[in-house]
Specification:
The complex is a heterodimer of chains A (386) and B (103). By secondary structure, chain A is an alpha+beta fold. Chain A contains ten helices and 15 strands. The N and C termini of chain A lie far apart (71 Å). In chain B, strands 1-3-2 form a three-stranded antiparallel sheet. Classes of the chains: A alpha+beta (386), B alpha+beta (103).
């Protein structure tokens, strides 16, 4: 017997499925197995049949022998189990499986409850995910706005963020629509009428569109994850151990230590953001002496690859880091090639700043040297535009 | 429980059919006979009602062979059926007093 597979209609679309199986039988395709994603049909001679879905005693279980026999006596053959339901088929003219729609609606109460619980669980799941994605910014009491929070999450997670949000929202919308559709079906039964699968065509199209959208979103999510793989950190700092700004470039008087160990150039990470999600770190360290004596330079270079704008990203990053108090540099004082800069208020022998050029952000912490903030900013501008 | 509330038509006819103990399929036929063919009870409705009425103590399993279960009314079931019959009769009688049959 030749097998044919078709995308399954949703388990809860009772009237539509019953109509669908009848139409397929009339075309010589007889349903044999109802999977969550695919339905298996077997080819035979076209036959007019009617199908009914009956609530199972427990989800995913087949009917007991006694029930099966009684249904057979009444002309209904068990076809297969299908999630919350069992599917039966009969010849046209057979007495309906359920002659009391009101009573039938009672048998569907557990299915409706299960769908409702699903909606609640998915909604809580969505809230949890959204909270987790934005926890980064919410944890700080440093004047982070919602915009900053969204921006920071965007900067850290790239396209994964909107993809995850869309996927979670699609999930919630899908179960909510399922609940609404099924509730309407149960209400119709309570009112004493058996709904027909009149919206079958629309149901099939919607199911296909839903499947395509889910596949597309999942693919986009995978691509988003893969796009992060080559980076050492989600923010995509300078490749390898390279650093954008060198200590000797910043301070010509300094004699940087060229060996390894405490001094020299390190690529070790120093926490920059104190949030659990942030992997944004001052990961390029250069000390001037073997004992780690001053002056020293920490920096982090970032290319913002998501459409939040480097300026907005720099502001959000600053608010979640030691630069949370930093002031923007007036436009007329910005060196050439720098679009925006934030500098911490004058600190003794320490300069902390963040400079933005195009989609690039350079964050610098310079400790113990004699350079002014303006000089460090000018060197940072040169490094960014080199 | 349901004894104090009006029964559905299906429940009333099923209890009526069970005045003679029978198995599910036979009960479907008895319901049809008892109602003069007006009420046809589907297998799904029958199975659900049998489970519900057994749980509520209105019917009980009289015997079970390999293929079928035979049900019978319990005393509570007889009382419930009698009460419903009297209620329905009172409704009809009240209608007759108001000459509803002339409408």
């Amino acid at each position: 017997m030749k097998r044919v597979y078709r995308i399954s209609l949703p388990a809860w679309a009772v009237a539509e499925r019953e109509e669908y199986y009848a139409q397929m039988a009339a075309r010589g395709l007889f349903v044999r197995r109802c999977g969550a994603f695919l339905t298996r049909f077997e080819r035979g001679d076209p036959l007019r049949k009617i199908y009914r879905l009956d609530a199972a005693a427990e989800r995913g279980t087949e009917p007991p022998d006694e029930q099966r026999r009684l249904y057979e006596d009444g002309g209904w053959q068990f076809v297969c189990k299908s999630d919350w339901f069992n599917l039966y088929a009969a010849a046209p003219g057979t007495t309906e499986l359920h002659t009391d729609p009101e009573w039938q609606s009672e048998t569907l109460a557990p299915v409706r409850r299960s769908l409702r619980n699903d909606v609640i669980a998915k909604a809580l799941y969505a809230v949890f995910w959204v909270a987790l994605l934005f926890a980064n910014g919410l944890m700080f009491g440093r004047g982070m706005t919602i915009g900053d929070t969204v921006c920071l999450a965007f900067v850290q997670l790239g396209w994964i963020l909107p993809m995850l949000l869309l996927l979670v929202l699609a999930l919630v919308a899908s179960v909510a629509a399922a609940f609404a559709h099924f509730s309407h079906y149960v209400r119709s039964l309570r009112a004493g009428k058996r709904p027909e699968g009149r919206r079958l065509r629309r149901g099939i199209l919607l199911r296909r569109a839903e499947g395509a959208a889910t596949a597309l979103l999942t693919a986009a999510l995978i691509v988003s994850f893969l796009s992060l793989l080559p980076r050492s950190a989600p923010l995509g700092g300078a490749p390898g151990d390279e650093h954008l700004l060198r200590l000797e470039q910043l301070d010509p008087d300094v004699q940087p230590f060229s060996g390894t160990g405490l001094g020299g150039v390190e690529s070790g990470a120093v926490d920059f953001c104190a949030s659990p999600l942030a992997s944004f770190q001052l990961d390029c360290t250069q000390l001037s002496g073997p004992d780690g004596t001053v002056p020293s330079l920490f920096q982090h270079y970032v290319e913002v690859r998501v459409p939040v704008g480097a300026k907005a990203a720099a502001q959000a990053l600053a608010k979640s880091s030691f630069l949370y108090d930093a002031e923007p540099v007036e436009e007329d004082k910005l060196p050439d090639g720098v679009d925006f800069a934030l500098v911490n208020a004058e600190m003794e022998q320490t300069v902390e700043l963040c400079a933005v050029s195009g989609n690039r952000i350079l964050t610098v912490q310079y400790i113990g040297g004699g350079m002014s903030a303006a000089d460090v900013l000018a060197r940072a501008a040169e490094a960014l535009n080199a | 429980m349901a004894q104090n509330t009006p029964m559905t038509e299906a429940m009333y006819y099923l209890l009526l059919a069970l005045l003679r103990p029978a198995h599910g399929y036979r009960l479907m036929q008895q319901v049809s006979e008892a109602s003069g063919g007006r009420v046809a009870m589907g297998a799904g409705t029958m199975y659900g009602l049998l489970s519900k009425l057994e749980k509520e103590g209105l019917i009980e399993l009289e015997k079970q062979d390999e293929r079928r279960k035979t049900y019978a009314l319990t005393n509570a079931g007889r009382e419930a059926l009698g009460a419903e019959y009297r209620r329905l009769r009172a409704l009809v009688s009240d209608g007759e007093k108001m000459e509803v049959d002339r409408l």
